[in-house]
Design goal:
The structure is a homodimer of 318-residue chains. The first copy, chain A, contains 13 helices and 14 strands. Chain A is of the alpha/beta class and 318 residues long.
């Protein structure tokens, strides 16, 4: 048990589990690897939605009701933008803007995204190690019936309305996984796939060169938490995407998606009927409460994830 | 009197006179040419302080006490920036940020600075034609006892504290004056040099290729308004710069600066003692109130400037 718990993480749901894990593990035992496929440039500013959500969540600055951005936010920038007939499809709060601006300034000054992320977390008093999956640009493109759309155009501008046919992760084939991520895999205590969107939060990480192989051969149990609960995504378009891809929006289908990669699935008690089907895929299934309304829920799920990881023989092939 | 009144303009003082002129001339009789030597990029955003001030002034959005930015501004971006240990030396209001962001977005989409400026003024309901002196980048560099400083670093970051030795306008020799500016000079009714800083607001415009010659040979009277009143600059570092350059901070010295270019100087009644010295430089001097506290002051000065221009034989060599 020398290594770290490595978490593959998207935005809201992932950040909640990460917060729980950060309350039960010391910082040096954790490494949070965040999807950057959603990142984009807007107004010349570099915006990293998943890193932002993880950052605000760990710094206790996140708006808990809205699910993104900062608590106590104001919107004078957006008001003024509308007055100017500006591109107002992506909401940016006045306080939130500072994170994007300072990140952009540091990137332009030559810092890597990892360095910027570490510096900003440090300024906010967060000691949990958080790294972008890569310092190289990977851009998620959603293939839809309206054509190929950059992720934020699909997600925010078009409100997930276009029908999804597939996904592309531009740049992934050449992007280098973050060095700490690669290093941590070799002796990880556990690898956790957070309850994030499998297609657009986790798959971009798995699309990095040799990443599936690196995770499969890592001497650590791989535990995935289903983001689908009772046939629905708690947040975001995962269930809608599954339906459009002809996949049932179920915990089994999530398990099928991670088949050959994950040793165990953590599913919600509402999906306890999927237990046997998941077992038939060769994965363990743990049925617990995965709906994280309170901090106690986050901590309890973190403990459940670590518990099931602890029961798996790390050296057994997935 | 077929042509336009062409105003060479910097920030605050210039914008006030422009507002006055806009109240006594129809839009098609005016062309406001704004210094872009102060422009810079901050956080990846393109900031054009003089264009911003003129824009906010004409749109009646300017903060009248602070002298820059928008009235009713909020500062949550700056608060958050400080929390992140960010680069907080340049104040950006939450509402003001939208102008920089939308400008940057349009520039990145391929619009010229002129096109962006025209579009934003139109959105704000301003019909006065305002153009940047050039769509090409000109950057004012202040040579000081601390070395060569980009203008905003000298002006804001170092609060004009370094001792000035000279100025450089990087890019000016290759910058093309705005086409409407060049065209308007050929049949201008008058050319007005606003009460802006001669060194860092007006000289960058005059540093454009052949600009001094174009103004000198234009068949229009050239009237300059002194930004120095009673030995002081009403706003900004003009008087401090003059002292450091070994030039007395007087209306005569401003006249001397524009000698060979301006046909007439408009000076404040406080400087009426300079009248004869200015006449000896071969320029007419008009002594009026140049301190623009109220809108009526702005309009009165605009009328005074147009009146003296009307008394000058446009064809006489300067």
């Amino acid at each position: 048990m020398a290594g770290r718990v490595v978490v593959l993480c998207g935005g809201v749901g992932g950040a909640k589990l990460v917060l729980g894990l950060s309350k039960v593990l010391p910082p040096e035992k954790l490494l949070v690897v965040v999807n950057t496929g959603d990142d984009f440039e807007h107004f010349g500013l570099r915006i990293c939605p998943d890193l932002d959500t993880v950052t605000y969540t760990l710094a206790d600055l996140a708006d808990k009701e809205r699910g993104w951005g900062r608590a106590g936010e104001t919107w004078h920038f957006m008001e003024s933008l509308r007055q100017l007939g500006g591109a107002d499809w992506f909401n940016l709060g006045d306080r939130d803007l500072a994170l994007h601006a300072e990140r952009t300034r540091r990137l332009k000054a030559g810092e890597s995204l990892s360095e910027v992320t570490a510096a900003l977390l440090d300024k906010l008093g967060v000691s949990v190690p958080v790294v972008p999956m890569s310092d190289d640009a990977v851009r998620t493109i959603v293939e839809t019936d309206e054509g190929a759309l950059p992720f934020q155009h699909y997600f925010v501008r078009r409100r997930c309305e276009p029908k999804v046919a597939g996904f592309r992760f531009d740049g992934a084939a050449k992007a280098r996984p973050h060095a700490a991520f690669k290093a941590a895999l070799t002796d990880a205590e556990a690898i956790v796939i957070a309850p994030s969107n499998p297609y657009v939060s986790v798959d971009p990480i798995l699309a990095l060169p040799n990443m599936r192989q690196a995770i499969r051969t890592a001497p650590a149990p791989v535990v995935a938490v289903s983001p689908i609960v009772g046939g629905k995504a708690l947040k975001g378009p995962a269930a809608k995407m599954m339906a459009e891809l002809g996949v049932p929006a179920t915990a089994e289908a999530v398990a099928e998606h991670y088949r050959g990669l994950a040793d165990a699935m953590v599913i919600d008690w509402q999906d306890r009927g999927a237990h046997d089907a998941i077992a038939q895929l060769g994965m363990r299934a743990l049925t617990v409460n995965t709906v994280m309304n309170s901090l106690d829920d986050r901590i309890a799920l973190a403990r459940d994830v670590l518990d099931i990881a602890g029961t798996i023989d790390a050296r057994a092939p997935a």
